[in-house]
Amino acid sequence: MKIIIIGAGEVGFNIAQRLSEENHDVVVIEKDPVKIRSVQNALDVQAIEGSGTNPSILQDAGIQDSDIIVAATDNDEANLFACFYAQYLTDFITKIARVKNPDYMKHREIFKQDSFTIDLLINSQSEMVASILKLTEVPIASEVIDFVDGRVKLIGITIKEDSPLVGRKLSSFQEYENSILVGVIIRGEKVVVPKGEDVIQANDLVYMVTRREDIQNIFRIMQIRREGLSRVMIVGGGETGLALAESLDATTINTKLIEKDGQRCLELAEKLEKVVVLNGDGTDREFLIEENVDEVDIMMVLTGDEENNVLISLLGKALGAKKTVTKIAKLSYIPLVSTIGIDTVVSPRLSAIRAILQYIRKGKVVCVAPLKAEAVEAIEFEALETSDIVNTPLSKVKFPKGAIVGAIVREEEIIIPRGHNMIKPHDHLIIFALKDAIPKLEKLFTVKLEYF
Amino acid sequence: MRFQQIFRLIGILNFFLGLSMLAPLCVSLIYSDGSFAPLVYSILITSGSGLIVFFFARRIDSSSLSQREGMAVVTLGWVSAGFFGALPFLFSDSISSITNAYFESISGFTTTGATILSDIEALPKGLLFWRSLTQWMGGMGIIVLSIAILPFLGVGGMQLYKAEIPSPVVDKLQPRISETAKSLWKVYLLITLLEIGLLCLGGMPLFDSICHAFCTMPTGGFSTLNGSIAQFNSAYFEGVITLFMILAGINFALHFKFLKGDFKVFGRDPECRAFLLILAILILLVTWNTYGTVYSTVIEAFRYAAFQVSSIITTTGFVTANYEQWPALSQIILVLCMFLGAMAGSTGGAIKIVRIILLVKHGYREIFTLIHPHAIRSIKLGKKPVPPDVVNSIGGFLILYLGICIVAVIFMSGLGLNTVTSFASVAATIGNVGPGFGLVGPVNNYLSIPDVGKWVLIFCMILGRLEIYTVIILLVPAYWRK
Fold it and tell me: Given B67, B176, B387, which is nearest A44 (Cβ)?
């Protein structure tokens, strides 16, 4: 596919990198010559210096024979206009625009008319809110990813030193064999695609696949009572904080929202019912203790200042918050942050990147790329009738090294597979794979296509 | 620096270089000229050693390659190609000394066309074909060829491409580097086939047509005949070759766009206009200068002037006239051509027109700001502004180019060569032209240069082909420090 990406900021750059590594033809349009230079040096894409809202630049980029345009600059209006020109210049192009202003999202029907359609509007903030809300379903998890419309969940859990799982062999989970499968273990820098004899160690990040209705089994093997989420503290009453508070307002969860600015607190209090709005500074230790931070299940730190967010999260953890979720915009900070003891990082840019990549891959490949290990992906594949893998027991299929089937989805049924299970045509498979194994996997699933 | 990775890539390169020798092997089979066994040995050694290095060097990450590593791969790749390319000459005993064989081989790959052979026609057909093939592969670039064939180079391919392509600014024709390389090679192949066809139509034997086309399009200049193109004494062949030398001197990106249906691209490109204008003026000057003094008719003067000026300015180095007997002005013009070169992005060598244009504009801007001290003026090529760092790097290139020329000329004269030969041999090799003046003039060859001198010239050829920076950086100690 040929894909035009406008804007080589963090979002544009990362999308361009992923797509070019997947052998798509990528053209990047960017105004800033310095960014153009870094794109040229680092990526195998065509880089064009100029504005994405200039139709003749779009034509230079070859928009006529492109399949997708992704407008990912920091400027909403520039992104929308780029899509508008794209529609004018060519009829059949898929248009994806990143918008920050939530007002555009509220009126998305405007972008669904015949005269002007945007196929996908990405609002990184609402993507991020959605991913934080998913975390509240499984509070012990550091990451929750949905497959097949949320019917299959991939849950990432960091194993603490006092966890009952430490030292257990994976094969000892047999009584749950039909509901839980450990797909990937991330141990420090290493990524392990585990076998039965592997043993879980403290500080592992374990990714497990399970059905939505079987989540309680995870609590059972972790030997913790299913404590529903009861107390949440949100620091920062910006747009993200408000959106989250509004969602939590409708639940029974006890929510406190901390905001520095008194005037903003008034506005927040007007919009919220049950949520307790507190006027105070998240970096104030006494204030946090006074508000019982030690009893909080999740502390969500979402102010606009990312350096401050890190410090507030560390402070909260030190004062006894069970879990923290920290908002960080800059992608290059993310790997650093996990080494200093912050549980979960959310990033609007990362959310936008994932949402765009998922859409482009159209369900064929669902990117997981956990924060701590860019090297693994969870991929959703459809098994074709002509493929070698169908109607063979899984244990006989020659999967490449570093790949494991996490779930088989057959119409309504979801199978957590064992060696004797067979793949039937049109099954959807969720597969964990190291980056190196992905091309081989793709081959395994499509090699017979040539005989059509 | 990850040496394993570098050697691994060079290993692959050598493997394919060995495979390319299958072509001359076929030729030797057809003519059963006795070069079969030497070629088989060469293939086994070249491909075999390539495979051994490939399998023994540990694989790290094939997709990433730093700019530094890219430069090392390209430079060392060319040096080793020169070595393995020399094997057929050595094994067949056509050229007995290693220095001479290496000189002939690297002169082929760098598309210089300087030869040490006095009796070219005595060579077996297979080896004659190999000589032409080295030029043809070296013209568009052995690295660019491998990028086109090998899909896994990825981003690393861009670093290699930048290090090899003869142009101050690197443009991609297609989003992906492997596609860009493929497009360039397709255009190159197409124009070469066209030339083979036209030469055949004029009655040149197929073998000679192929060899000459293979040496025209890379602006190489090897011939299968002792007397070069002059031996045919045919205005038609000279016309066809002149035309294709000029085509080869034009940026292949423009050919690509032309073939895509953008027919006005040559007229629109400022460098192309300047190149054709300079070419026309110089041809007319030489015609005017030689008419009446050397040639009796204007037509005859034009015929030889057009061929010779095109041949030297595009750095091809085919010869139809003994230009050493021309008047001084014409000779000076040819010397000038040796330094000018053709367009950036063509297969030609030397300084190249775009650099000259930009330096002239830079000079004019300096004068302009003396007159208007507050003026802000950007240097433009056509309508596109050129970033200041590109202009700076061109200034640096010119200083290095001339500096290396001077040092090499001093060295050559120190070996006891006369003034004209010292000067011409260096200018003709660093510019990848081939024939020069004096002992290395159009009717002579490089055999008489002392061995040490040949190695200096070999170095000059590689420097010229890879546009200095790529090679010279390996000689800077800081490059090797961690």
Answer: B176
- Side-chain-side CA neighbours of A401 within 13 Å: the count stands at 2
Helix H or strand E segment including A407:
strand A403-410
A23 CB neighbours in chain B (<8 A) are 176
Query: Is the Cβ–Cβ distance between A221 and A173 less than 8 Å?
Result: yes
pLDDT at residue number B462? 94
Residue of B nearest to A66 (CA): B175
- Beta bridge partners, A299, equal A233, A324
Q: What order of strands is seen across the sheet that includes strand A2-6? A: A46-49, A25-30, A2-6, A68-71, A94-98, A120-122
The span from the CA of B152 to the CA of B147, in Å, is 8
Check: complex ipTM more than 0.85: no
Q: Other C-beta atoms within 10 Å of A391: how many?
A: 12
Tens of pLDDT, residues B324-371 = 999 999 999 999 999 999 998 899 888 999 999 999 999 999 999 999
Cβ(B241)–Cβ(B229) under 8 Å? yes
User: How many degrees, rounded to 5, is the angle at CA B344 between CA B338 and CA B350?
Assistant: 20
Phi, psi of A408 (to 5 degrees): -115, 130
What does the pLDDT look like over B174-198, one tens digit per residue? 888 888 888 889 999 999 999 999 9
Residue B476 token pair: 């800077």
Looking at chain A from residue 17 to 46, which residues have their Cβ under 8 Å from any Cβ of chain B? 20-21, 23, 25-27, 33, 40-46
pTM: 0.80
Rounded to 10 degrees, the C-alpha dihedral B126/B131/B136/B141 comes to: 120
Q: Is A2 on the interface with B (CB under 8 A)?
A: yes
In chain B, residues with a C-beta closer than 8 Å to the C-beta of A25 are 174-176, 179
Q: What share of chain A is helix, strand, coil (3-state, %, to 5)?
A: 40, 25, 35
Write the pLDDT tens digit of every residue in A160-180: 777 777 888 777 776 666 677
With cut-offs at 50, 70 and 90, classify the pLDDT of residue A115: confident
Work out the angle at residue B152's Cα, subtended by the Cα atoms of residues B148 and B158, and round it to the nearest 5 degrees: 65
